[in-house]
Write a structure and sequence with these properties.
Strand content: 5-15%
Helix content: 40-55%
Number of domains: 3
Number of strands: 7
Number of helices: 22
CATH architecture of the largest domain: Orthogonal Bundle
CATH class of the largest domain: Mainly Alpha
Bound molecules: flavin-adenine dinucleotide, iron/sulfur cluster
Radius of gyration: 24 Å
Distance between the termini: 52 Å
Oligomer: single chain
CATH superfamily of the largest domain: DNA Cyclobutane Dipyrimidine Photolyase, subunit A, domain 3
Structural class: alpha/beta
Order of helices and strands: EEHHEHEHEHHEEHHHHHHHHHHHHHHHH
Strand order of the largest sheet: 3-2-1-4-5
Length: about 525
């Protein structure tokens, strides 16, 4: 078959790689090469994606395409127009069948599945896909391998210290500023009973023309997907992403450290930055974000606790989880150390629950495609862990419902940190707590029909019942972990009758939700 067009090299740009400010383009030949981008149905249906997540990706891709054209990049772009089934593989195959080219290049994809699809498509044409390091990230796979060498166990903390030294961040005379590497203990305050002071609302980005047309498209093609587009206000280009960052640094960073773990009814953002999607789609560069934040400490506009807490998340956790993903995939996605088998309760999709903490966290997730870290870890994640939901189902929910969800960051956080399915690769112990933790960190329990202090009885908090039940069921495994010793001993001190009552109440609760497999 005659090929319609000739290119020397095809530069694939994926929907979460929206920047030209990268070495990736250093050999781009404007006369002979092209950028290839495609909107495909499968990326919205592979998991049942929140409408806001779909709109964010499509709109950001279209904004980026405009920028490429403005900068005179030859661009081959496929728009999603109908219900037609399409995947990155099928679109790339179609394109390669129709165009002759010598080379195809891509930055390391953030999703193993996508990498396999691209490789397959390219190799079926007798070509080799050139996969290069994505210089949006601050640690290369080789550096992480060197870090991992001869370590019995990986821990974020030691990785983070090396990254602080490498980038000379918050360092003074070769030592960590303030004499400590990590001020995590200072980052756990809750609010007084009056709640947070007036928090400036984060800057909002109402849909422009491009986003509005994408919203119409998504409502038409994916009408039954979860989520509500009436509230869509996420940044969809680099300029707005930068405005969102400055707004956070000016108005919320100073209190970020103190209240990082706190939760409050009707306060979806509190002092959080809301920039994860901007970072993950490459609209903001992590090093620029971190350096900007460091200046706020240097200029006395924010405390070391606040700035270190923020930088740790991006320089430490974000880079660490990406490398855990790369190192342990593709096996990682199948791990299920605790053999959890139950189905995800349906209220995760329709929010029909009487547990007030879950109602708040899931409610804002369905409304905005957002919940902050402690809501994800210690409300929805904790529920699934205690309840024994199959980790793969938990993973698919998290990947679907958050605007910032990309598999490289979502999977280790969900399967590892939150569900302990990886037997401690991500976290040194399972993150478990009873309803009393949620009561301490929020005002959710004040208007809940359950009592967080009770483990049995009609008004017992399901978290508290399931917390004890979890330790009873997993006693042998947990007893081997020195960090779980106190919790196991506390359980062992419960009266035998009470233990039986807890176990039977937990089973009845699971049955009532119709999730036992
Ligand atoms: P802030 O609280 O303002 O934090 C600043 C930045 O630090 C974030 O924007 C993010 O880039 C980074 N960060 C913070 N915590 C983490 C972490 N644990 N891992 C990696 N980066 C971190 N983050 C995602 O970006 N995508 C996901 O799909 C995702 N899924 C998660 C699933 C679970 C079960 C858990 C427990 C956490 C998940 N996280 C995920 C991490 C974290 O919850 C979000 O990054 C954060 O809530 C995003 O909101 P923010 O931008 O306001 O963050
Ligand atoms: Fe959640 Fe239990 Fe508190 Fe109710 S009492 S809000 S279920 S922790």
């Amino acid at each position: 078959m005659k090929k319609t067009k000739k290119y020397s090299k095809i530069f694939i740009v994926l929907g979460d790689q929206l920047t030209c400010d990268s070495d990736f383009f250093k050999d781009f030949d404007f006369k002979n090469d092209c950028v290839w981008m495609a909107e495909v149905r499968e990326e919205s249906t592979q998991v049942w994606s929140h409408k806001s997540r779909i709109v964010l990706y499509l709109s950001a891709m279209r904004h980026f395409a405009k920028e490429l054209l403005k900068n005179k990049y030859p661009l081959e772009y496929t728009q999603l127009v109908s219900n037609q089934n399409s995947s990155l593989k099928s679109e790339l195959l179609k394109f390669l069948a129709d165009h002759s080219c010598k080379n195809v290049k891509v930055r390391k994809p953030g999703d193993h599945r996508v990498e396999m699809q691209l490789k397959d498509a390219v190799s079926s044409q007798g070509l080799v896909l050139e996969i290069v390091e994505d210089d949006h990230f601050l640690c290369t796979s080789k550096e992480f391998e060197d870090h991992s060498l001869n370590r019995k166990q990986l821990r974020m903390e030691y990785f983070y210290r090396e990254m602080r030294v490498k980038f000379d961040l918050l360092m003074k005379d070769g030592k960590p500023a303030g004499g400590e590497w990590n001020f995590d203990k200072e980052n756990r305050k809750s609010f007084s009973k009056n709640g947070p002071d007036l928090i400036p609302s984060p800057v909002s980005f109402p849909p422009d023309k491009i986003t509005s047309s994408v919203i119409q498209l998504v409502e038409k093609i994916f009408p039954d997907h979860p989520g509500d587009l009436a509230f869509f206000d996420w940044p969809v280009n680099a300029v707005d992403a930068n405005i969102a960052l400055i707004d956070f640094l000016d108005h919320r960073l100073a209190s970020y450290g103190d209240y990082q773990d706190a939760m409050w009814v009707n306060q979806p953002w509190l002092y959080h930055s809301r920039i994860a999607s901007c970072l993950n789609l490459h609209m903001l560069h992590p090093l620029a974000v971190i350096k900007d934040a460091e200046k706020y400490y240097e200029n006395g506009k924010a405390s070391l606790f606040a700035v270190e807490g923020f930088i740790r998340q991006i320089l430490g956790w974000r880079e660490y989880v990406r490398n855990v993903y790369i190192k342990f995939m593709p096996e990682y996605i199948h791990l299920n150390f605790l053999q959890a088998k139950n189905n995800l309760p349906s209220f995760f999709w329709d929010n029909n629950t009487d547990m007030h903490c879950l109602k708040c966290a899931i409610g804002q997730t369905l409304k905005h495609g957002y919940a902050h870290h402690i809501q994800r870890l210690m409300v929805t994640g904790l529920f699934c862990l205690l309840f024994g939901v199959e980790p793969k189902q938990v993973h698919e929910w998290y990947l679907a419902v958050y605007v910032d969800a990309v598999e490289w960051v979502e999977l280790p956080n969900t399967l590892g940190m939150s569900q302990y399915a990886d037997n401690g690769i991500m976290a040194s112990k399972p993150y478990i707590a009873s309803g009393k933790y949620i009561d301490r960190m929020s005002n959710y329990c004040k208007s809940c029909k359950y009592d967080p202090a009770k483990s049995v009885g009609e008004d017992a908090c399901p978290f508290t019942t399931m917390y004890w039940d979890f330790i009873i069921r997993n006693e042998k495994i947990l007893a081997k972990n020195p960090r779980m010793g106190m919790q196991v001993r506390n359980m062992q001190r419960l009266a035998p009758n009470l233990k039986l009552e807890i176990a039977s109440q937990a089973t009845a609760f699971r049955l009532s939700l119709n999730v036992l497999k």
